[in-house]
Each structure stands twice: as structure tokens, then as C-alpha cells.
């Protein structure tokens, strides 16, 4: 797994609430000193258990593990020792060692949900997916003893295992409460996208070429499962335009249409699905169910029978056929089908092997021209001494030598031959992909680099190079996903290479309408001097919120965008006087340019020129009446000026224009809080928390609202979360430096109307 569900691995927790055990939370395990030895020749159980506890609490996991092992030899049924030994091994990535210890603990305490969860997670890491699924299901039923981090990780892994086993409805059932509680992270969206597309794989097994499709499906699935069928239908229809022959997209559209009450259209979508997925029982099953729901049993019967023919081992198909037959008065056959359905209830779901094959990563050799043909095409001399009996080691050495000699095509041929002998050579695929990229053979680079990430998915540079190759082939959606993945894992290499990757990620953020993230990536590149022309142009696109790549822009706008980029660079260095001169030039050139007045007004507000800022922001509302941005900024200013009535009015308008804006709900909640409308404030702030769970500002003000509402426990929980999130933000600022333009916001994207961690004057759009 990548992302939050790997990085934020659960650790041990308090068992005070579980049975009669009363233990302390497991600390983060890091070796802080040299291992200690036991001076006692024959230590007692009491001595060993005390030494184990001392080592664990001192952050010496290796010593703690050794002492727990010794103590358990003397007292094998010591539940506390088994718990700590199992979770310490898990925390140290010793999954195979953790499994038998946790199995022993569960034999003593079979209903211990947290132990079942750690056992299932350990089995997942050792690829024992069947047992992992079994134990994670048991853990889910027993509960996690209020450990929210463990619950989050275990629930996610259970969901992806439901997908793997073909039980997609269970994935949706498991994850839908998370969607309704808050905006889900990308990992949850991917799991839901895979369920929507009926993909019986783990996320780590997906072909990177399918990432954009699955991410789009995940966005649609979130809308659908949250009950927003109209927006889900729009998203799915757009997907059908881009991926018209994708199995189960019409089926998902039918689900959204049925939820919206458009049954005839839903039936047509299902009919379309039967043509794309003729071997699937699902569309026939849904056709029969819809007809039966509207009391059209005769129309339902043929589809119900076809579903049974296609999926004879499915309890659902026999059950629906039984219902249909019963509605038609055919009781004996209905009774027979009901009995079959009951018999099949416990059977495992059939996995669609065609779907697995369609989406799975492959690690086989790529189809390329012969090595000699590749070398001869460029006129380079081939290796006359090439021997078909060369070993892998010999070919790898020849590849290294020819690469050092600058013989690119010959090097490629050696890598191809070496990889044919040893296709699991991840470094070889990465080197071959790099050679293809530098030779402008971008499609070949994509194929090679996909093999590399299939072998090792934790190399940020490989993902970045894959994204750059896809950029060149104009596969911009996958390029964005993979460059972002590379950025999250960490770009390495020389400064120029890192800057090159960040630039392409930034322009793709612009293309995707994510202008703030583009600005945050680009502004550190400005430094003390003027930015290069490419960076300037990309900053200009971000400032003017133009969702295009640089080469997609009408050339007649180039001078305006360059000037906007120069302005953005000045703002990034807090050079307001010079920036304001540029703004005047921009307004003279194109006074009706969308978002120009918004950025100017925001810049004025950042230095407390509120009257002038208000003039610019009001002007922006005339040019972009459908945008919430100027109303958000005006509401922020009103709060700063202690005008909560005006702030509430403006925030309400922003909510109307953008109901999914966390900042709009936050500002409205802040305004109601200042006006003493505590219940209304709580409603809005809780909505903002769901949309932006990582915002320190939201948590800070929710704590205030809960305190005013007489809910001290909830208030304390929000204060604790605020402290944790605020520390993360401060650490990030200390690493990246404060930026006056674009980066002085929390990770949630909410500007602090009254930031609890810094003066408001430091905040800027």
C-alpha cells in the first residue's frame, strides 16, 4: 500500500477497556541506545517482565522483544506479553514473527478485536490474503477498543480485500459511512472506484495505465455512495465519453439513474451493459430487480433466468428468480430457487478473471524491435561480438560499459536482452526507461517504467519519470497521478531534475484547476531572483486561474499571462509596491480578466488596505458572478474587522455558490459563533470538518463552539486534534519556508480568518 494507510501504520494502544487487561499505550518504537544484557544468570518471570516493560517504555524495541520472548518461555499464556510481543514485531515490520504470537493471544482471547486486526494486517503484509480477510472481518465485528487509527487502517485493508475477493457490495457498505462522515482520502476513492468497476485486484496490482480511469471512477463512486446521484450521473456520463467501452460503467450509470427515479433510462443503460459485458449476470440481475420493483414480473422473468444461467453459483441470482416466480404465482419453482439460494449463501463469490486480466499489472518483457534493428536504425555500430549465450551478468556488464561509452542504442539492446533473461530486474527496467526517455521514445519509456514500478512501487524517481513520459505522450491524467505519487514518495537527484519534475506537476495542477497547489510548487523556485520564463508563465496561469497547459493558451494572451506571472513572483517575495504597479498595468491591459481583481483585492487585504481590497473584490463579483472566491475573501475581511453580520451574509452567499467549499462553511460557522448562534455554528463547522478534516483552524473553532455548547469532552477532543495538526503545519512551514503568496494556508486549503497559530496579516490567497 502507498499513502496514508502505509505511512500511518497503527501501533499498540491502551487495553484498559478490554477485559481485565490494563496496559499502557505502546510507544513509537525506535532504538535509542545500545542493547542491554541481562546480568542475572537465571532471571525470574517477574524480572524479565519488568525488564521488557522498561525496554519498551525506553524505546528499545529489540531488547523489549528479547525480554518478552524470554518471559513467555516461563509463562506461555501471559496475555500482556503476547500482546506487546506481537505488536512490537508488527511495528518493526517483522510480520512473520508477529503472526504466531498473535495467533496464540487470540487462542486465549478469541474476541479480542485489536489482536485480530493486527493479525489480519500482518497476514496481509505476508500476502496471506485469505486468512487476512477472515481475521479482519472478525476484528471488524468485535471492534477496535476505540483505537481510531487502528480502525482506519484495518477497515481500509478489509475493503481492498473485499474487492480482491469479488465482494464489491461489501466494500461499498464498509466505506460508505466514511464518505458520509468526511471527504475521503485518495486511497478510499481508489478502493471505491475499483468496486464500481468490479475489479477483483488489490490496488498494488493495478496497471498504472488504468490509474486515471480508476481515480475518475472513485470520484463518481463517492458522489453516488453519498447520495448525490445527479452529480454522480454527470461524472459517469463524462467517463462514458472518455472510456466508452469500459465494462460496468453503463451499469454504474444505471445505478445513478435508478436512484434519480429515471427507470426507463436505467433499463436502457443496463441493456447497453449487456452488450459490453455479455458474460456478466449483474446487468440482467439489475434489469430483473428494476422490473420487479415496478411490478413488471413478466418482463423481469427472462432477465432473472439469464442471470441464473450466467451465475449459477450466486445466491443473489437464485433469490431474485425466486421472488420473480413467486410474483407470477409459480410457487413450486420459486420454492426450489429459494432453497438453492439458501444453500449458496455461504459460498464465495465468483471472481471475474477477465476483469483481473484487463486491469492487472504485468511484469513480462515488452514487445520491441530486435536489438540489432534498433541500433542499426540510428546508424550506430552494433556489437559484432554479441553472443546469444551471454549470461545475464555478462549482458548487464556490457550494458554498463556501452552506456559509459555513450552508445545509447547498443546499451538499450543489452538491457533488452538482459531483461529477457531476468524480467524481475527493477533497476534494469528503470535504466531502460530512462534511456528511452532521453532518446525521445516516450511510449517505450512508459512500457519499461511500468515494469519497474510493478517490481518496486516505492521509488519516487521512477514514478516521476513515468509521469514525465506520459506527459510527452499527452496522457495528462495519468501523468498527473504518477508525478504526484513521485512527489509524495520524494523526488531525488540534482536540483535541475527535481525542478523539472515539479514544473510539470505544477502545470498539470493548473490544467486540473488546482491553482493553489500549482503556486505552492512553483513559488519556492522563484528564490531571490526573477524566475525563468517557463516558471513565470506557469505562475501567471495560476494567478489568473486559467486551466490550460502553457502550449494550449491563445498566443494573443501570452503577454498578459507573463505579466501576471511576474506579479505572482513579486507577491511571493512580499514585494507589494512593485506588485501593485504590475496590477495596474494588468488592469489597463485587460480590466475584465476573470480573477484579476480577486487576486489584487486579496493582495491589498494582506497588507490591511481593506477599503481598496473591498473595491476590487466587489468588482470581481461583477466579472465572475458564479464564483465563491470573492465572497469568501470579503467574508474573511469582515471577520477581521469584527463585522460578523456582514461576514455571515457573504459566507452564506459563498455556500450557495459552492456547497462543497470547506472554507465557506468554516467562515459561516465562525460568523455564527461570533454572533452567539452556537447551534448554527456547530452545524457549519462540523460540515467544514467533514470537508477539510486536516484543518487546524476548523478544529480550533470547533473546540470553541463545543465549549460554548456545554460539550467539554468534544471540545477537548478537538483541542487535542488541533494541537497535532497545528504542529504538523508549523513543521512543514519550518521546512519549506513561509511564502506570502499561495503557501500561507493550512493543508486543508482554508485560510485562517483568525488563525490560532499566526497573525492574520500573514495570510494571503
Mind explaining what this structure looks like?
The protein folds into four domains: 1-164, Serine Threonine Protein Phosphatase 5, Tetratricopeptide repeat (Alpha Horseshoe); 177-361, Serine Threonine Protein Phosphatase 5, Tetratricopeptide repeat (Alpha Horseshoe), CATH 1.25.40.10; 371-574, Tetratricopeptide repeat domain (Serine Threonine Protein Phosphatase 5, Tetratricopeptide repeat), CATH 1.25.40.10; 596-762, Tetratricopeptide repeat domain (Serine Threonine Protein Phosphatase 5, Tetratricopeptide repeat). 67% of the residues lie in helices and 0% in strands. It is built from 39 helices and no strands. Helix 25 runs antiparallel to helix 26 (476-489), helix 26 crosses helix 27 and helix 27 packs parallel to helix 29 (533-543). Residues 1-8, 11-38, 364-382, 736-749 and 751-765 have low confidence and may be disordered.
Amino acid at each position: 500500500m502507498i499513502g496514508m494507510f502505509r505511512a500511518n501504520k497503527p501501533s499498540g494502544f491502551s487495553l484498559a477497556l478490554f477485559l481485565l487487561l490494563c496496559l499502557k499505550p505502546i510507544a513509537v518504537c525506535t532504538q535509542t541506545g545500545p542493547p542491554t544484557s541481562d546480568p542475572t544468570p537465571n532471571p525470574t518471570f517477574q524480572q524479565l517482565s519488568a525488564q521488557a516493560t522498561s525496554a519498551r517504555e525506553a524505546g528499545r524495541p529489540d531488547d523489549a522483544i528479547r525480554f518478552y520472548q524470554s518471559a513467555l518461555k516461563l509463562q506461555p499464556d501471559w496475555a500482556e506479553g503476547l500482546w506487546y510481543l506481537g505488536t512490537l514485531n508488527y511495528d518493526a515490520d517483522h510480520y512473520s514473527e508477529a503472526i504466531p504470537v498473535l495467533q496464540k493471544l487470540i487462542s486465549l482471547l478469541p474476541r479480542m478485536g485489536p489482536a485480530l486486526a493486527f493479525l489480519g494486517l500482518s497476514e496481509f503484509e505476508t500476502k496471506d490474503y485469505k486468512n487476512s480477510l477472515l481475521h479482519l472481518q472478525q476484528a471488524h465485528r468485535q471492534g477496535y477498543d476505540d483505537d481510531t487509527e487502528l480502525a482506519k487502517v484495518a477497515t481500509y485493508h478489509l475493503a481492498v480485500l473485499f474487492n480482491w475477493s469479488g465482494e464489491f457490495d461489501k466494500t461499498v457498505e464498509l466505506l460508505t459511512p466514511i464518505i458520509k462522515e468526511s471527504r475521503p482520502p485518495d486511497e478510499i476513492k481508489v478502493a471505491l472506484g475499483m468496486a464500481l468497476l468490479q475489479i477483483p485486484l488489490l490496488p498494488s496490482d493495478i496497471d498504472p495505465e488504468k490509474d486515471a480511469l480508476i481515480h475518475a471512477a472513485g470520484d463518481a463512486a463517492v458522489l453516488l455512495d453519498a447520495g448525490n446521484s445527479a452529480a454522480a450521473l454527470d461524472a459517469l456520463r463524462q467517463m462514458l465519453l472518455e472510456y466508452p467501452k469500459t465494462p460496468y460503467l453503463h451499469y454504474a450509470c444505471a445505478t445513478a439513474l435508478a436512484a434519480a427515479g429515471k427507470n426507463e433510462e436505467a433499463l436502457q443503460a443496463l441493456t447497453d451493459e449487456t452488450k459490453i459485458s455479455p458474460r456478466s449476470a449483474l446487468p440482467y440481475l439489475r434489469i430483473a430487480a428494476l422490473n420487479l420493483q415496478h411490478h413488471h414480473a413478466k418482463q423481469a422473468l427472462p432477465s432473472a433466468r439469464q442471470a441464473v444461467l450466467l451465475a449459477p453459483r450466486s445466491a443473489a441470482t437464485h433469490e431474485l428468480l425466486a421472488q420473480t416466480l413467486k410474483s407470477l404465482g409459480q410457487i413450486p419453482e420459486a420454492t426450489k430457487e429459494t432453497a438453492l439460494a439458501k444453500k449458496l449463501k455461504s459460498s464465495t463469490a465468483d471472481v471475474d478473471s477477465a476483469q483481473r486480466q484487463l486491469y492487472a499489472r504485468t511484469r513480462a518483457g515488452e514487445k520491441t524491435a530486435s536489438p540489432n534493428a534498433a541500433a542499426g536504425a540510428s546508424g550506430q555500430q552494433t556489437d559484432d561480438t554479441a553472443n546469444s549465450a551471454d549470461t545475464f551478468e555478462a549482458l548487464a556488464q556490457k550494458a554498463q560499459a556501452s552506456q559509459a561509452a555513450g552508445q545509447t542504442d547498443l546499451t538499450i539492446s543489452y538491457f533488452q536482452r538482459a531483461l529477457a533473461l531476468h524480467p524481475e530486474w527493477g533497476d534494469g527496467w528503470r535504466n531502460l526507461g530512462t534511456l528511452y526517455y532521453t532518446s525521445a521514445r516516450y511510449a517505450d519509456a512508459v512500457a519499461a517504467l511500468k515494469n519497474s514500478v510493478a517490481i518496486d512501487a516505492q521509488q519516487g524517481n521512477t514514478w516521476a519519470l513515468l509521469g514525465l513520459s506520459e506527459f510527452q505522450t499527452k496522457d495528462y491524467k495519468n501523468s498527473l497521478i504518477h508525478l504526484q505519487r513521485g512527489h509524495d514518495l520524494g523526488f531525488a537527484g540534482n536540483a535541475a531534475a527535481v525542478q523539472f519534475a515539479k514544473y510539470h506537476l505544477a502545470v498539470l495542477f493548473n490544467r486540473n484547476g488546482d491553482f493553489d497547489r500549482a503556486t505552492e510548487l512553483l513559488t519556492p523556485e522563484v528564490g531571490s531572483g526573477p524566475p525563468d520564463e517557463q516558471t513565470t508563465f506557469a505562475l501567471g496561469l495560476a494567478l489568473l486561474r486559467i486551466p490550460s497547459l502553457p502550449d494550449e493558451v491563445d498566443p494573443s494572451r501570452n503577454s498578459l499571462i507573463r505579466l501576471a506571472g511576474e506579479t505572482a513572483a513579486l507577491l511571493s517575495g512580499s514585494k507589494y509596491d512593485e506588485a501593485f504597479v504590475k496590477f495596474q498595468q494588468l488592469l489597463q491591459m485587460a480590466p475584465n480578466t476573470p480573477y484579476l481583481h480577486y487576486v489584487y483585492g486579496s493582495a491589498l487585504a494582506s497588507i490591511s488596505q481593506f477599503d481598496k481590497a473591498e473595491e476590487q473584490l466587489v468588482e470581481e463579483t461583477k466579472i465572475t458572478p458564479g464564483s465563491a472566491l470573492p465572497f469568501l475573501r470579503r467574508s474573511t475581511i469582515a471577520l477581521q474587522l469584527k463585522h460578523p453580520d456582514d461576514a455571515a451574509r457573504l459566507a452564506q452567499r459563498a455556500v450557495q455558490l459552492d456547497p462543497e467549499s470547506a472554507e465557506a462553511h468554516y467562515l459561516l460557522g465562525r460568523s455564527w459563533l461570533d454572533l452567539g448562534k452556537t447551534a448554527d455554528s456547530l452545524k457549519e463547522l462540523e460540515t467544514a470538518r467533514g470537508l477539510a478534516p486536516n484543518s487546524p483552524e476548523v478544529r480550533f473553532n470547533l473546540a470553541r463552539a463545543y465549549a460554548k455548547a456545554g460539550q467539554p469532552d468534544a471540545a477537548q477532543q478537538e483541542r487535542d486534534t488541533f494541537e497535532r495538526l497545528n504542529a504538523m503545519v508549523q513543521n512543514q512551514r519550518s521546512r519549506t519556508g513561509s511564502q506570502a503568496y499561495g503557501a500561507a494556508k493550512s493543508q486543508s486549503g482554508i485560510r485562517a480568518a483568525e488563525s490560532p497559530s499566526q497573525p492574520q496579516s500573514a495570510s494571503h490567497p
